[in-house]
Design brief:
This protein is mostly beta strands. The protein is built from no helices and eleven strands. It has strands at 4-7, 10-13, 18-24, 33-39, 46-51, 57-59, 67-72, 77-82, 91-98, 112-113, 117-122. Strands 2, 4, 5, 6, 9, 10 and 11 form a seven-stranded mixed beta sheet that branches. The protein has a four-stranded antiparallel beta sheet with strand order 1-3-8-7, with no helix packed on it. Strand 7 (67-72) and strand 8 (77-82) form a beta hairpin. It starts with a strand and ends with a strand.
């Protein structure tokens, strides 16, 4: 069983930065693939980025040059550094955990989800 708690969301102007954190419970955190998804009003939840247990990272094209995912296994925490934010990045951001080798791009590749944190980027 894994519990995930996101933090760090808020309101920021376009061009600004935010860092999201996702604290996980459980002794096997280091073996999980950790992902970030986002969902804007009226839209489907979409993949943002993921990091494997090995440290390998994957990004959606829309964020690849601006966002950075990282993990600290000693703290059971995964981070999402978001730079050069745009109004279209406005969404609820969700942290997710899935088994190694899962389909990290799709929501069904993850078995555990946080409650989400709101990110609002003003123009």
């Amino acid at each position: 069983q894994v519990q995930l708690v996101e933090s760090g969301g808020g309101l920021v102007q376009a061009g600004g930065s935010l860092r999201l954190s996702c604290a996980a419970s459980g002794r096997t955190f280091s073996s999980y693939t950790m992902g970030w998804f986002r969902q804007a009003p009226g839209q489907e939840r979409e993949f943002v980025t993921a990091i494997a247990w090995s440290g390998g990272t994957y990004y959606a094209d829309s964020v690849a040059a601006r966002f950075t995912i990282s993990r600290d296994n000693a703290k059971n925490t995964v981070y999402l550094q978001m730079n050069s934010l745009r109004p279209e990045d406005t969404a609820v951001y969700y942290c997710a955990a899935g088994p190694p080798g899962s389909d990290y791009v799709h929501h069904y590749g993850y078995g555990y989800w946080g409650q989400g944190t709101q990110v609002t980027v003003s123009s």
